[in-house]
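Propose amino acids for all 461 sites.
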């Protein structure tokens, strides 16, 4: 009996301890849940978002070989662009950067490009792209120590140096805009032994075709049925950049860049359309099988210089020059019957698509800031008779002036409302001496002038 009493007393004494242990466990569970939530929120907060919004009204006045007036004047053309910027410091050694883009004409409610001629280089940039949203860039920087980095993904290839002054924007691309201003996927190694200088080498790949899915499900990567006739375009890139003025002169940048493109390829639909527009000849049966054709190799060498706020004066400027060479032209057209009764394709037809030779382009600009709220700028562009740029239209450049075979003058005034938004009134005069080309082709004389009076509103935060 005495033993039972002792056991009962022991149990009564332990009951508060058991209750305390259960309470403690509940508290631990609550703390664990809170930690999990905090870790989740911390992970989500790693991604920082920014937004660019651009809308403009454009008034085009065209003089096409002397034809002007009704039908050629095209006023009151509205377009808009929306760009969602993302970046995240994932770890100390990994950083993600992304951008989603939509550029469209007002009233275009289609969910896909209205024009079948739009290519992946245009996605998110061309304002005939409908309401579809595209990945303009998505890449990861892997920092391999203090001086070396590896970048892979959809590379930052749009709105680079030479694009910034007129658009009141920070540098968005690794490459000068006159070298490349389009989308591309690949990898880049950056060596940065000094604080402000960098050496970069890179590689990019374009598979042809861009839209076919074979029975293997691998699309344009490979085909289980055997040989794949489409050409794969390769792009090799090297650049060195460094400041070239003392810090007292303001922010400066000098870039020397080289690009070499092998197996430069175009979709067959664009080849057929281009030759037909230039000569009236249908080359459908003259092209090799498949959806893409290799037409030759291209080289670009660019020198870019820029300086912001020269000695605190509010004066900024840039100079960009690119030399271009086309080589290794491919004899891709097979003999067919043409309308003039011949049995062979004229060499001139192939030159209308790709022509060996040299070309160059020059783009210079300057802007004077008048206090905090007003800025006045001027830009000049010249492209030689064979010039072809890896550049596409955008909300800020509906005429794609960097692909002009001729001269462009642009004058603009910016009214800065605050650090997030501004209005820009601009007048652009473009005179094309030779037809705009969709590839590095032989020059075809032309005489077209286009004037554009535009008002844009830009919001960026």
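Proposal:
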């Amino acid at each position: 009996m005495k033993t039972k009493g002792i056991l009962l007393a022991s149990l009564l004494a332990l009951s508060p301890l058991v209750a305390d242990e259960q309470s403690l466990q509940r508290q631990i569970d609550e703390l664990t849940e809170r930690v999990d939530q905090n870790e989740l929120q911390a992970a989500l907060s790693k991604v920082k978002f920014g937004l660019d919004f651009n809308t403009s009204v454009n008034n085009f006045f065209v003089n096409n070989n002397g034809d002007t007036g009704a039908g050629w004047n095209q006023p009151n053309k509205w377009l808009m662009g929306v760009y969602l910027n993302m970046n995240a410091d994932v770890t100390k050694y990994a950083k993600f950067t992304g951008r989603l883009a939509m550029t469209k004409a007002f009233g275009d409610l289609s969910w896909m490009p209205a024009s079948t001629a739009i290519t992946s280089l245009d996605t998110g940039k061309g304002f005939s792209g409908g309401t579809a949203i595209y990945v303009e860039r998505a890449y990861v920087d892997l920092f391999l120590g203090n001086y070396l980095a590896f970048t892979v993904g959809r590379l930052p290839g749009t709105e680079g140096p030479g694009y910034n002054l007129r658009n009141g924007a920070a540098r968005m691309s690794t490459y000068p805009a006159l070298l490349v201003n389009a989308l591309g996927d690949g990898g880049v190694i950056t060596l940065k032994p000094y604080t402000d200088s960098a050496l970069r080498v890179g590689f990019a790949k374009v598979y042809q075709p861009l839209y076919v899915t074979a029975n293997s499900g691998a699309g344009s990567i490979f085909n289980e049925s055997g040989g794949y006739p489409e050409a794969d375009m390769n792009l090799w890139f090297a650049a060195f950049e460094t400041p070239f003025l003392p810090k007292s002169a303001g922010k400066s940048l000098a870039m020397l860049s080289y690009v070499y493109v092998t197996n430069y390829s175009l979709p067959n639909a664009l080849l057929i359309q281009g030759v037909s527009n230039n000569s009236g000849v249908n080359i459908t049966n003259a092209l090799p099988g498949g959806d893409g054709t290799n037409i030759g190799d291209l080289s670009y060498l660019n020198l870019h210089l820029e300086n912001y706020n020269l000695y605190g004066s509010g004066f900024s400027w840039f100079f960009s020059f690119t030399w271009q060479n086309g080589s290794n032209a491919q004899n891709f057209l097979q003999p067919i019957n043409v309308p003039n009764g011949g049995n062979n394709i004229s060499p001139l037809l192939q030159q209308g698509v790709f022509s060996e030779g040299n070309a160059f382009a020059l783009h210079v600009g300057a802007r004077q800031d008048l206090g905090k709220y007003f800025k006045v700028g001027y830009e000049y562009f010249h492209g030689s008779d064979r010039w072809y740029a890896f550049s596409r239209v955008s909300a800020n450049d509906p005429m794609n002036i960097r692909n002009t075979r001729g001269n462009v003058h642009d004058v603009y005034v910016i009214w800065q409302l605050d650090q997030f938004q501004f209005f820009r009134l601009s007048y652009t005069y473009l005179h094309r001496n030779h037809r705009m080309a969709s590839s590095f082709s032989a020059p075809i004389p032309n005489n077209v002038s286009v004037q554009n009076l535009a008002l844009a509103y830009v919001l960026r935060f």
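The mean pLDDT is 80. Residues 2-45 form the longest helix (44 residues).
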